[in-house]
Specification:
The chain has helices spanning 7-18, 23-30, 34-43, 53-66, 74-87, 91-101, 108-120, 157-161, 203-214, 233-240, 256-266, 280-291, 303-309; strands at residues 167-174, 181-187, 193-198, 221-224, 243-246. It has 324 residues and is an alpha/beta fold. It has three domains: 7-66; 74-134; 152-318, 2-Layer Sandwich (Nucleotidyltransferase, domain 5), CATH 3.30.420.10.
Length: 324
């Protein structure tokens, strides 16, 4: 299990950094897992400034007093690396498996950051991700102009575990040349979906349609991307008495359920197809088909069946390790 660095080890780190040694070389010299050295660099803000062993050791002691460490143990990190290297598990699958089967709690965002740091130091973890060398999912900083936006980082952990109905993801499928749009809504646990035709991407119309679509359902949270069509998120949250969260920019993996739903809808409404002939009756037909299709992720319940029987089955307890 991981132990805090001793002052003598920090002095050695300072010496090795001064002679130009890399993180990987330092970890081997100290006999420490490289993640321990990564954490030392990240936690103490070592960038261009010179590493000072005495200063950082004192700061580390203060941090230990202020709050307990939430970093994964070396044992947990070795497990994460093994699942990526040998079995090609995704960060979401690793995170949810750990939550369901151990006392360790490691967010998928932390795992992505770890993979990114491993890549920077010459590691190979990123090459074992599903999209190979181009696969980079370190969350980006939001630089848009949505007022009072609340990041997904503040979303309650229960949303990630899919242990209740009423946590939604929403998105828009936009027609060719931005003519027309379809509002897509999905419950993260049951995968029951709602499809609504929109005239365009106006935030006012989007907000009103979201509220009307789930006003009679249990609703705790909504998560969306950072499109300006969701600018009226506070109106949605107020009308439905729920919390509204935004994923990181370019992080579609944080909204896997809605991305999967959009792909299913595209089977019926391919890209390039005009939305002129898409009406509410057509969308209702597609919605009904998808909600009555057995899902492997639901142990072959349909979304409708799962929603109706949610409180009468323990099947829901088996879903926390699933990605989509």
């Amino acid at each position: 299990m991981w132990k805090h660095l001793k002052k003598e080890e920090r002095i050695q780190i300072q010496t090795l950094l001064d002679v130009g040694k890399r993180t990987e070389e330092i970890s081997k010299y100290l006999g420490r897992h490289r993640s321990t050295i990564y954490r030392e660099m990240q936690r103490l803000g070592v960038n261009d400034e010179r590493y000072d062993a005495n200063v950082y050791h004192k700061q580390s002691r203060l941090n230990m007093v202020r709050q307990p460490s939430t970093e994964p143990s070396e044992e947990t990190i070795l497990f994460i690396e093994k699942k990526i290297l040998e079995e090609q598990w995704s960060p979401e699958q690793i995170s949810n498996w750990l939550k369901a089967n151990s006392q360790a709690t490691v967010s998928h965002v932390w795992i992505y950051k770890y993979i990114s740091e491993d890549k920077k130091s010459g590691g190979e973890l990123y090459n074992h991700m599903r999209r190979g060398g181009s696969y980079n999912k370190e969350p980006r900083e939001y630089k848009g102009k949505i007022p009072n936006r609340i990041s997904i980082e503040e979303r309650p952990e229960i949303v990630n575990t899919r242990e209740r109905l009423g946590d939604y993801e929403i998105d828009l499928i936009v027609g060719p040349k931005n003519k027309g749009a379809i509002l897509t809504i999905i419950d993260r646990t049951s995968r029951e979906c709602i499809l609504k035709k929109l005239s365009g991407k106006l935030a006012v119309e989007v907000a009103a349609t979201v509220v009307n679509s789930i006003t009679d359902k249990a609703a705790y949270t909504i998560t969306s991307d950072n499109g300006t069509e969701f600018t009226n998120h506070e109106c949605i949250a107020g009308a439905l008495n729920l919390k509204y969260f935004f994923a990181h920019p370019y992080a579609s993996y944080e909204r896997g359920s809605i991305e999967n739903l959009n792909g299913l809808v595209r089977q019926y409404i391919p890209k390039g197809m005009s939305f002129d002939n898409v009406d509410d009756n057509m969308l209702k037909s597609i919605e009904t088909k998808l909600n009555n299709r057995p899902r492997k992720t639901l142990d072959y319940f349909t979304p409708i069946e799962y929603s109706k029987n949610y409180h009468n089955t323990d099947k829901k307890l088996d879903l926390s390790h699933l990605q989509i």
